[in-house]
Amino acid sequence: MKHAESLRPNSKSVVNLRRNRALLSGSAVALIAALATPAFAQSATPAPAPQQGAEQAAAISQADQTANDIVVTGSRIKASGFTAPTPTTMVDVAQIQNNAQPNIFTTIAQLPSLQGSSGSTTNTFSTSSGQQGLSSFSLRGLGTIRTLTLLDGQRVVGAYYTGVTDISLFPQLLVQRVDVVNGGASASYGSDAVGGVVNFITDTHFTGIKGNVQGGISTYGDDGQGLIQLAAGRSFLQDRLHVVVSGEFAKEGGVGPGDFGTSLASGRDWFTQTTMINRNVTNDGSPQYVMRDYAQPYNFTKYGLITAGPLQGIAFDKAGQPFQFQYGSNGTPSRAANGAVNGCFPGFCVGGDLSGNTDTGRTLQSAIQRVDGYGRIGYDFAENNEAYVTVNIGQVRTHNQPTNGANRTGLVLQCANPFVPASVQQACATAGVTQFQYGTANALLPNTRVDTDRRQYRFVGGLKGKFGLFGTDWSYDAYYEHGLNTTAVDVKNIVLSTHFNQAIQAISLNGAIVCADPVARANGCVPLNIIGGATPSAAALQYVQPAKGAFQRLRMTQNVASLSFSGTPIDLWAGPLAVAFGGEYRREAYSVRADPYGAGVSDLSPNTADYPADPTLLAAGNNWYAGNYKNGSGKYDVKEGFLELNLPLFKSDVVGRANLNGAARVTGYSTSGTNWTWKIGGTWETPITGLRLRAVTSKDVRAPNLSELFAAPVTTTLPNFLDPTRNVNVVAIQNAIGNPNLKPENARNTEIGAVYSNPPWLPGLSLSFDYYRIKVKDVISSLSAAQIVDLCFRNIQPQTCSAYNLNNQSGPNFINVQAFNLASIKTDGFDAEASYRWQRPLGLPGAFTIRALATHIFEFITDPGLPGVAPTDSAGVNTGSTPRWKWLAIQSYANDHFSFTLQERWFSDGNYGNQYVVCAAGNCPVSTTNAPTIDKNFMPGAFYFDIGGSYTFAKKLTAYFKVDNAFDHDPAPSPTYANPALYDIVGRLYRVGVRFEF
């Protein structure tokens, strides 16, 4: 796709023009006036009238383009006056600056149509995901894998083998605007654009020097932030050679873990250990599920608890002294072999001794440090024709603590273990037992920490410009991109499970305490005392938590070659026929290497100092408590061709003006064959001044990613698996692997809407409304081993039959646990936007602007495609990412000297799940799998109030401030601990900074 930056006048003057216009229009006119409307440029215009309408506002924001050039992210067509039918939200540089975030990702993710995006507050509870600190967008709640993110209209190498990109690695200071296409765009851009496209447009011809220095901190004294950005650009050789460079350094301290119990980091007091407890009773007239605050599991404590048998209820303090555990709920130990507690719910008591709670030890927000460098050299080898090279090198480092301790339950300790206190040994003798069941949070061990180092190397070389053909102007854009992303994940202080199990079984031998297993002793086992909280010896720690823990080394590569053309070859009755066509080749590949203790080797032959061979470990891997990464690799290539047409239908003063826009793309995947995508839509500028109608429908795809196709295998043994064909239990090997036979997901996306802007009766008003409906079929979803066998046995999904053999005469029985194209997703809703700008309010200089935009979801239904499993509707489920309502509102006043902005972010009340039936004890129907009963099903929404402002001391020096979540609104209690996908879990944040430009 060709962008007009290379064709514009002096960029420094343009930046000044845009800044002055932004001040006069309330700092962010182009953002809100164009939200939910096509971001398109018309011919260059003089200074705007009091209200230009949505399209004109977009044109103003792109005043650096030539009179006949246009860039519309939702389309490949470039033609004067063209209006794309797909709604596009445009966020300009003024809004980015006003929001004053250390990462531009946060500003874009606040838009209502973006739901379920990942960032530094998500994945923080994870040890094994490898996605900590990964900033990726999700449109319409369809997930980050169904949103395509572009940089200057070009693909970016994935930062993980799901293919998602990391926005933290983009050159953020040079971003002029961000276009968010709220609808399917696969016909224009290919795979992944099911929910839409987010396109970052950079200032490729910036001239001058500009910078930004910013700092921030939370009201709790943590999450300290620093941001330094600097960019420079200059033209040489009579303005034919253009050089732009930028660099930035950002650091966010994050919000670390608290201690055991209920005290979160830095004294945050909103945590109540809300738990959804399953009573496991469905037909006694009471709800099956109950919601309770301060629920404490009764199968472990901070420093250890005997959990079953005649000694049940004996707990230990830090010094290892026994005491009677306080269960809460007035519970008493049953002393039965199953470990039940009288008076408590299954697995939980309410209240009592909460010191063993480990959830408080989770990182609330990952610490993140990012460094980014960018350079571009462009040479105009002819008028309106440029050759260019860009280099983008960036690094993002994060770390998090997934939880406190390493909970272990169901352990069995011998009464004769020399670490067992004498009083407990005597109690064993009195009760006539030789062992007891035990659970501990392992508070004596250092907490696990996950460090992630993600690096991106991206190189692009290209040609773009114009040429004449048969009396008409044509644009072309050709480029080649090579991208490399490496991700190193290191897990420190992780328990080596096999060594832990050996170390806790101690005996006295020749007057010394040693490990009971002689093979383990011969291979370096050092006994570990898990009764109490005494600090283990260095040797015991090294044996249980080796200095070199679990690791993963991921390498992603992407190569793209693209060529496209756009022009208007024919003049028709209502205007020129616009055409865009082109082709693209893309190759994606990944390889991942992991440590031998997690990945497994046949004989653990890598006998190194870090990972010595040990016959007590599992040769197949999976030896760590968590973070058992695997080795793997895979690749695929894609060949694509597309054609797009814009046909003007009519143009007159009586009936208005209308166009029909259509596109088709044929794609050949090396893994799944040929696939077609298309779109058809149109717009009608009605005779009613300011009223435009639009509609579009499309077929879109998401091809299976490298992870789904070629996931590294994970092998486990299933000792008593039922073979339904022979009705016998067998030993089977479960292989969790990728599925190279997966087909692309297919989506149908339909949108219809209207835009009403700048009416004669109220200049300055802009309104828009768009209804959308999306249905995705053949959704790639995972199945369990039992489901795979059952679906084949009952002849419901024959495609699963090839995934297993439970009567294998030539080798072990196996089940390949894979993903299949079985599920579907259906969602619909609408976007609405309103804005009004008041020029010179009450005679004051400057402008006052009010604006609001909202997204409402009617339904978000996921059907797993499995027999007996009902579809679920997650619209309004606030434990997820798709609330019924989500909106953003802004009020701002700005003049030549200062600006002041108020911003409100809100989403509606919801629940824990739409499938639940709320009822009270004595009045409940029978609880079922598809309609379970519950005593409470309400999760409140949230309202966040932000304040910002700036003051210009000199023409090129502006100081600013921003306060996010000014009321310090706490997140709602959640059975999933906290939901950072919706709620602010950090609290009030203060930021100040200075921007300058020369």
Automatic annotation (TrEMBL):
Pfam families: Plug, TonB_dep_Rec_b-barrel. GO terms for cellular component: cell outer membrane. GO terms for molecular function: methyltransferase activity; nucleic acid binding. The keyword Coiled coil does not apply. Keywords: Cell outer membrane, Membrane, Receptor, Signal, TonB box, Transmembrane, Transmembrane beta strand, Transport. Residues 456-965 form the TonB-dependent receptor-like beta-barrel domain. It is a multi-pass membrane protein. This is TonB-dependent receptor. It comes from Sphingomonas glacialis.
